[in-house]
Design goal:
The protein has three helices and nine strands, in the order H-E-E-E-E-E-H-E-E-E-E-H. It has 195 residues and is α+β, with helices and mostly antiparallel strands.
Length: 195
């Protein structure tokens, strides 16, 4: 008859510490990676033109301003329609009310943007300044360097500030699928705009 022996092994304190240290190091590495990613994504570059200053996202494509545009920056890495921030400055009559200016902007957008639809319009306050927020969508079908030929549904926000005979319009445009994901970065940009 053959004798069988059973080997019993016990985990040493060092083995248990090794397993725990792997878990802790993994959590620390993930946290550091997230911190680094957030730091890179939130880098900004100072901008100043025509008395308007802002902190624009670093690495974005700065387009040549046309017409009443003071700033036009686009994220080249975005898929579909490139996320875009625009700052415009328009002279308005000294006695023009914000409602009149907003109505004119809506008329201009309706004439120049395909399938323009206002989702919501409301009065807001941004850092103590009164503004009108216009939440809208339209279809972009013109191909250019920042987006493909395929038509895209663009979700956008305009913040219209009217004071001292001028209107400053800060605009955020993004592909409908990326709108919510980048909204926080745009709001940081919006509060950095000074005029």
């Amino acid at each position: 008859m053959a004798a069988t022996t059973q080997k019993i092994t016990f985990s040493s304190l060092g083995d248990r510490f090794a397993e725990l240290s792997v878990v802790i190091l993994t959590v620390i590495a993930l946290a550091l990676g997230w911190w680094l990613k957030t730091g890179v994504e939130s880098r900004s570059v100072a901008f100043s033109n025509q008395g308007i200053t802002a902190q624009t996202p670093a690495g974005w494509l700065v387009s040549k301003s046309t017409g009443d545009e003071v700033l036009h920056v686009t994220d080249r890495t975005a898929s579909g329609f490139g996320i875009t921030y625009i700052v415009q400055q328009q002279a308005v009559a000294a006695d023009a009310t914000p409602d009149q200016v907003v109505s004119l902007i809506n008329l201009q957008r309706g004439n120049s943007l395909t399938a323009y639809r206002i989702l919501k319009q409301q009065d807001v306050t941004v850092l103590g300044r009164k503004a009108t927020e216009i939440d809208y969508v339209y279809v972009e079908s013109a191909a250019n360097i920042t987006h493909a030929v395929m038509p895209a549904v663009v979700h956008a926000l305009d913040y219209v500030f009217v004071e001292n005979g001028k209107a400053v319009i800060v605009t955020y445009r993004a592909d409908q699928s990326a709108f919510d994901a980048d909204l926080g970065r745009f709001l940081r940009f919006l509060v950095s705009v000074k005029f």
